[in-house]
Amino acid sequence: MSLIAGNLGVVQRLLDAHAIRWGVCAGAASHLYGDRRPIQDIDILVIKGGLTTIVQLLQQERKAVQFDGKRVLWRGVKLFDDLSVRRANKLHPFTLDSRMEQHLRRMPLLGSRVAVLAPEDVFVHKILLGRGPEQGKHDLTDAASIARRQRLDLAYLQERLRLMQAQDLLASNLANYNITFDSPDEAVS
Question: Whole-prediction pTM value?
Answer without folding.
Answer: 0.93
